[in-house]
Write a structure and sequence with these properties.
11 helices; single chain; globular; eight-stranded mixed β-sheet
């Protein structure tokens, strides 16, 4: 069940109240799960049952995505603001130094949390920030097209397409290598999440200048990339390994940009291996 917590963060305009929605399940050491741009915490649903056997799993709707409200005025969507928000979120929950796993935007945030020493291990699945300028422009243009398509498509059409494997492929093949495995209900829900993501444009705007260039020493780091990632091409994983020499670089065969649905068992194993 989704719960919401509110807390105060500093901003250039003074203290601001931020609210974050999340789902918490399982027991063990805490594990924070962060989704990508335009998605929601349900992206992690395929791996939750396995992760929850060994971890106290906290799957987050990032501010401005899912059912989490937009960031308040005065709090931008850049890394320098969102990472402290996530730190304050953990503090509000009484969670100290969780493990973290993130996908895409969430992977970049996970690495930043690791660089700031706010977590005890990092698993980054196709993290943003290791692109060339051309690759970034391609990814952002694809994301904008996905968003425009989701906004333009009438909901009855989305619901009708979601009922067939071919329709689910038409809606989600950019992010999934095996879109037919996604349930009709999940496809409709994530299409709505993309349509209603209040933080989408501001996150893309600040992302134009983002590049992850620092090492993350002193804690376990895994960078994993789907072999069929069509959004952030897998060669970016090699750059990530050069940037973070101590990281374990893992290939996810047959997986797309959001690999949790394409191969839940493999993704769960990668996350748990990193957090042990």
């Amino acid at each position: 069940m989704t719960t919401t917590v509110s807390f105060t963060v500093d901003s250039p305009r003074g203290p601001r109240t931020v609210s974050v929605a999340y789902e918490r399940t399982g027991s063990g050491e805490p594990l924070l799960l962060l989704h990508g741009i335009g998605h929601h915490h349900q992206a992690w649903d395929p791996v939750l049952p396995v992760l929850a056997l060994e971890r106290d799993v906290i799957a987050v709707d990032l501010p401005g995505f899912g059912v989490s409200p937009a960031l308040p005025d005065g709090v931008p969507y850049d890394l320098g603001s969102v990472v402290p928000v996530l730190g304050a979120f953990c503090e509000a929950l009484g969670v100290d130094l969780p493990h973290v796993a993130g996908n895409s935007l969430g992977g970049l945030l996970a690495l930043e949390l690791g660089r700031e020493k706010l977590v005890r291990s990092v698993t980054a699945l196709s993290p943003a920030g290791f692109w060339t300028e051309g690759e970034r422009r391609y990814a952002f243009a694809t994301l904008r097209a996905m968003r425009q398509g989701a906004l333009a498509m009438p909901m009855p059409l989305v619901e009708r397409l979601s009922r067939s494997a071919a329709g689910r492929a038409a809606l989600t093949s950019t992010i999934y290598a095996r879109p037919g495995r996604r349930s009709p209900e999940a496809v409709v829900s994530e299409t709505v999440a993309l349509r209603e993501a209040t933080g989408f444009h501001e996150t893309l705007a600040v992302g134009r200048s983002v590049a992850f260039t620092d090492d993350v020493p002193g804690l376990p780091v895994t960078v994993a990339w789907g072999s069929r990632d069509r959004l952030l091409l897998r060669r970016q994983g090699i750059r990530a390994k050069h940037t973070i020499p101590g990281a374990r670089l893992v290939r996810l065969p047959g997986c797309g940009h959001v690999p949790m649905n394409d191969d839940p068992a493999l993704v769960a194993r990668v996350v748990l291996d990193t957090s042990r």
